Amino acid sequence: MSKEIRIAITGVGNCASSLVQGLFYYKNVKDERELVPGLMHNVLGRYKISDIKVVAAFDIDARKVGKDVSEAIFAPPNCTKIFCKNVPKIGVKVKMGPVLDGVAPHMKEYPEDKTFVIAKKKPVDVAKELKKTRAEILINYLPVGSQKAVEYYANCALKARCAFINCMPVFIVSNKKWAERFEKKKLPCIGDDIKSQVGATIVHRTLCHLFTQRGVIIDRSYQLNFGGNTDFLNMLARERLKSKKISKTEAVEAELAKRLSYDNLHVGPSDWIPWLKDNKICYIRIEGRKFGNVPVELELKLSVEDSPNSAGCVIDAIRLAKIALDRKIGGPLISASAYLMKHPPQQFTDEKAREMVEEFIKGERER
Description:
The chain has eleven helices and eleven strands. It folds into two domains: 5-195 and 308-362, Rossmann fold (3-Layer(aba) Sandwich); 200-305, Dihydrodipicolinate Reductase, domain 2, CATH 3.30.360. It is of the alpha/beta class. Helices cover 32% and strands 19% of the residues. Strands 3-2-1-4-5-6-11 form a seven-stranded parallel β-sheet, with helices on both faces. Strands 8-7-9-10 form a four-stranded mixed β-sheet. It has helices spanning 14-25, 69-72, 126-132, 147-160, 176-184, 200-213, 230-234, 242-253, 308-326, 334-340, 350-362; strands spanning 5-10, 52-59, 94-96, 137-140, 163-166, 188-190, 217-227, 265-272, 279-289, 295-305, 331-332. It is globular and about 65 Å long.
C-alpha cells in the first residue's frame, strides 16, 4: 500500500497557492509530536504532509496554463500572502480546463491583474489526464457559482476513479444523487464548501453554540464579509451566490435552538475592496435575550488572510480521503464532511464532528 498521496487540483487560485506552499513549507516535519498550526494531526493515520504529491492541475487563465504549478500559484490574479517563496519546480504543468460557467461575465470589466484572462487554448480531456497521471484525489477550487463546471469535474473524478474533495458551494457531496454515484463506484467524497481554520463561519457557529448552550435565546444575527481577492470580485454577481448563502446560513443555523426567519438572520458576502487583496474582514452581530428577557448583544470583527486559513483543513481532508481509499470506502465521508465543510450531508456540532473524525481515523467508525 503506497504512502504517496497523488492529488489533482482544479482552479489554481489563491487557495491552491496556499495549499501547495504549505506542502513545501512543512515538508521536513517528521516528528509526530511537532505541532503544525491548522492541522488535526501532524501525522494523520499513517500519512504526513510530505506524502502529498501534486500530479495534475487545471485552470483557464492564460498566465497559468502551460506553466509549472510552482510558477502558476504565484501568477496574477493570485494575491494571497507568500509564506514559502522557494517552491521548487514540481514537473507538473497546468492544463487548460473547460470554461463552461467558471467565469462570470462581469469579470471581463475589471483590470487584468484583478480578474481572469481566459487562455486561447483547447481544453484537455480532464478524465483522461487524471487517469494518465494516476491521480487518486481531485480537489475542486473553482469559483463560486460554477455549477456546470463543478459537475463536469465531479463527473471526471467518477470516470477516472478519483476521490473528490469539493471545497466550494456547489452541492455535490450533500446531494443525494451525486453521493449515490460516488458510493456505487466505491469512491470517497468530502464536501461541500470548506471551512477555515478560524474563519467567519466557524467563529459565528461557535458563538451561536455558546449562546444556545448558556440558555440565551438568539433573536437576530448577521455575518458580513468583504475582501479584495477574485473570490469576492466574482461574488459581486449576486446570481452566483445562491448556494454560497445557503451553505453559510445553514452552517450557522445548525447551532441554533430554533431557526430564525429570513429577516432575522443574514449571512453572506458583502463587497469587494481591491486593496484588501486576500485579507478577509468579517463583522458578526448577535442579539439575544437572557434570564428575565433582558437583552444581550455581541459584536465582533475578524481579520484573516483568507486562503491560508483553509489550507490546513484541506490537507486533513486529503489524508482522510486517502484513508477511505485504503479501506475501499465509497460515498460521502460523514465525519470528515461535518468537521471540515460548511454544507455537509449531515450537520453536527464541531465538537461532535471532531470526535467522529478521530473515531474514523482509528477505524472505530466506517465514515
